[in-house]
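Session log. Operator J.P. requested a structure for one protein chain; no other inputs attached. Running the standard single-chain path with token output.
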Amino acid sequence: MIRVFVYIGLLSLFSFQAPSNKMVDEKKPPNIVLIFIDDMGWGDVSFNNSAVDYTPNFLWLANNGVQLNNFYVSQSVCTASRASILTGCYTNRVGLSGAMDHKSKVGLNPDEVTIADMLKANGYHTAAYGKWHLGYQQQFLPTSQGFDEYFGIPYSNDMWPYHPESPNYYPPLPLYENEKVIDTITDQSWLTTTLTDKATHFIEQNKNEPFFLYLAHPMPHVPIYVSEEGKDKTGKGLYADVIHEIDWSVGEVLKTLRENNLEENTLVIVTSDNGPWLSYGNHAGSTAGLREGKGTSWEGGVREPCVMYWKGKLPAGKVFDQPAMTIDILPTIWAVTGSLLHEKKIDGINIWPYLTGKKKGLNERPLFFYYNKNDLEAMRWKNWKLYFPHTYRTMEGQPQGKDGKPGKYKYIKMEKPELYDLSKDPFEKNDIASTHKTIMSKMQKMAEGIRDQLGDDLMGRKGTENRSPGRIE
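Structure written below.
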């Protein structure tokens, strides 16, 4: 398929425009490394949680790069989150939601333009290693979405015959190399180390040309495994060992960049696709006090650890407090690489000038959080978080899961809108909707704008700008 890229600027809600992308030396476009970790919680890294003392490489990144303290996903679930980070769109715009499995007949439409598509058109070599989860049929695989190479699994690592609640519902978990299934997986202890080896080899092989590396670790999504070398490294249990091994992986990528003199020409971005899967108890991560987790629009589900590092280009040790989202990754990469932007509308903006301190005011832009298909559950504007009536799940007061067996959620129906001031109440304990009617009214009007575009199933609203996913005939 031939894709046409046309620069038209960013078409983003509320008139945010990307600045000119003349900041890059066109002779030496920077490499991009995007590490996307599955189900890693806000409190799973030491720079967010003092109880964690086994993530030295994450801490090094935070001390030498920019820590995004209010960084979000648009939906706190696997497929939807990945669609947003790779396309720059709210996942509802590109027609995807939830977490697809082996029976899914849809995938990311090949007509959408991913980060890999954009960079490949600019002469980059591109590779995806790890979890994909945007469609397993050939037309939806990474090699049909702008990636030259792919090695990994097509969906979540619990979608296999050993699922604790649905044994034998899933077929054997396939391992792909490019478009071919080369094996099925019965043991996952080698995944993190092998994917790391693939990533570092790719860097070494492409050190003389611009490259885009997308390393999407399948863990700490359950079932959790660690290599023989990684066992009992922390003395704090299997989950901590898994996080420690992912931290090691990040360190290996950084070391490879350093050894090949690539640090000063590489932007590294590390974040997570959603918060921890709390029903799994001791096999789930930490939110460090943020409310709820994966599968909700509360802070523990959608607010993720995120660090960006580029030696000499980004300020070292900066904590960036303005809200940003995975939809901003594509347009930011567009700006720093001097690539051409496609003609399709996206929702993200270039946040580079804000990260470097050249611009302020990013918090003026509203961000919207969907979950459960096209239900608009919440939004953030400035320091305010507004929730619209919906039903959410919680483990509060429920028996916890243990050792790979999940507990059972209970479901709570929110009957009326709730408002929280995250600057004073980051753990969302005090609903102040009754005393802030003006703020509520302003935010409701902003929400109407996105409902006009993308709809809202909770209100029976159809959008006018939803695009179709790819479908199997």
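Operator note: Confidence is low (pLDDT under 50) at residues 1-22.
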